[in-house]
Amino acid sequence: MIEDHSKFAGTYPYLDEIISSGDEARAFKPSPKVYELGIHRAGCPKEQILWVTGHFWEIVGADRQGLKNAWTNRARQPVLKIGVKPTYITRNLQELADELKRGSR
Fold this sequence. Notes:
The chain is α/β, with parallel strands linked by helices. It is 36% helix and 11% strand. It contains four helices and three strands.
């Protein structure tokens, strides 16, 4: 599903790998183990990783691990006032693809 949605939105060329489950880490988001697995599997410095999600609570976990992140806020939920600000906030993956093409960050 993530692959199909990413292809439709135009973000697929920016993905090296999709890790959609915490099963391998034997933990679930927002456990640091899940983000550490993503960092390990990416095989690059975490500064080169963009964690993309539709859930704000995943942004919190990614931020705590020092990852850039993108929140696709399709439901237009308010940003929680807990000291975490997403790197990108978009309404959908198409907006994220456009933002990434502009290379603004």
